Amino acid sequence: MKKIFRTLFVTSIILVCFHSPSAAQWNGIFDSNYPDRQKEVGFAGEYFISSDAVTVEFQNTYLNDNFIDNDLKDKTFKKMNGEPVLGSGLDAGFYYSSRSEKNEEHSWFVNVRHRQHYNSTFTPDMFGLYFYGNKMYAGKTADLSDLNYLNIRYNQFQYGIVRKLSGDSSGWTFRGGVSFLLGENYLDIKTDRGSFYTHPEAEYVELDIFLESKQSDSTNTGFGKVNGVGGSVDLALQYLKQGKYILRFGIKDAGIIAWNSKSTSFEIDTLYRFEGELIENFFDSLFLDIKSEGEFTDGFKENRKEEGFKTMIPLKAEFSYGRFVIPDKLTLWASADYIFNADYTPYIQLWNDYYISKRFMAGISFRYGGYAEIGAGIHLAADLGKGYILQAGTSYISGFISSSSATAQGGSFGLRKKF
Predict the structure, then answer these.
(1) CA-CA 20 to 30 A from 279: which of 21, 102, 301, 361?
(2) What is the mean pLDDT of the segment spanning 330-338?
């Protein structure tokens, strides 16, 4: 069980998510500087980890195994209202694209990417038991219900096309991609019912819990390991009104992974009493490892099956609108997206792309929703010459400025070559 809660805070992730993803999908930044270059290769990456309660300082201290003093615990614990959420994502890799020699409005692309999606929601009592122990709950019942934890990691191999659907400069463009997925790791944990009672005089503690879990093969872990196979599709449409605006909408990662027969499905349904327990740190003293059947006492009712299962990968629906305020100079953007099968609220962004020159672009962004609440960032792009284009930015700059109060942090980097 301790491993579950440690994993709630341990995420090392890189997410590719530029406003204009790349020329592999739509026309990219500074493409007009190289009208005769038909091909492009590149790498891009961005990371984020965000929460509505857990501070960046706490996240970094915990991940680095540094000492967490009471002041740091208290600052985070006081932020927790309702059910805190913590999430992150990963989408990093290389791509190659090529425009058709017969029709420059048509192109194809391939992507090789490493993906991860992490999602958790938990009660403040769960955080309190883990970091303070059960002494503060003497005579009280701690709420352990409604835990929703998901960690999925896979590698993606994608082929896609971009097709202009009309012959003039304005009109519709279609983008679609089909992916083959190799699943590395999957862990899903839910508690529909959960409580932990501590007797006022510590004569006993009582655990009442119903927990369900599905997990890929825990003996075959690490980068590049294969524990499942699957597929997904991306579909999107763009409408361009030349010199006026751009409208885009689509779905991303509509897919499924079938995990192999060495995967396990696990269930605990129990009401159990431990006599004479006063525990300074509950999960250090009472260690329940869901990977090991032998760790459970006879009082637990468990149901474990070793068999394959299928899971949907998190599906994103997205919409964006760009207005050319000053053509070739200033574009204002607004977007909204939503991730299904996650504790993710609608995510709204506002940003601008301002071309200081033909070779340099800068912008600022504001966002609300997702796993955090409010965030701001900056992004930059530079044409370095000879077809090299550099992009960098941050989605939550406050995480770098004030880690003691900010609850989200993220940064991005990309380099591509047109030839």
Answers:
(1) 301
(2) 96
Residue 230 clears pLDDT 80, i.e. is over it = yes
Q: List, in order, residues 6 or more apart from 366 with CB less than 8 Å away.
A: 349, 350, 351, 374, 375, 376
38 within 8 A of 99, measured Cβ to Cβ: yes
Closest residue by Cα to residue 311 from 253, 255, 256: 256
pLDDT at 63 (0 to 100): 67
Cross-strand pairs, 310 = 258
Distance CA 71, CA 102 (A): 65
**Contact partners, residue 187, CB within 8 Å, separation at least 6:** 7, 149, 150, 151, 152, 213, 214, 215, 216
Q: Using the CB atoms, write b or e for 249-284: b if 16+ within 10 Å.
A: bbebbbbebebbeebbbbebeeebeeeebebeebbe
Handedness of CA 80, 342, 217, 185 (dihedral sign): negative
Contacting residues for 326 by C-beta, under 8 A, at least 6 apart: none
Q: In the predicted model, is pLDDT for residue 7 greater than 50?
A: no
Burial class (CB in 10 A: 0-12, 13-18, 19+), 244: exposed
C-alpha to C-alpha distance for 338 and 319, rounded to whole angstroms:
9
The pLDDT of residue 353 is above 50: yes
Q: Residue 155: beta bridge partners?
A: 114, 182
**Alpha-carbon span 250 to 267, nearest angstrom:** 37
Query: To which residue do tokens 């006492």 refer?
Result: 297
Contact in structure between 227 and 214 (CB atoms under 8 Å): no
The span from the CA of 131 to the CA of 281, in Å, is: 7
**What pTM value is reported for the model?**
0.84
Closest CA to 416 of 380, 379, 391: 391
What is the distance between the alpha carbons of residues 244 and 408, in angstroms, rounded to a whole number?
34
The DSSP 8-state label assigned to residue 15 in this structure reads B
For β-strands 302-306 and 345-357, DSSP reports them as unpaired
Q: Give the 3-state secondary structure of residue 39.
A: strand
25-34, 150-159, 219-228, 234-243: range with lowest mean pLDDT? 25-34
Q: Please tell me whether residue 354 adopts helix, strand or coil conformation.
A: strand
DSSP-assigned letter for residue 135: G
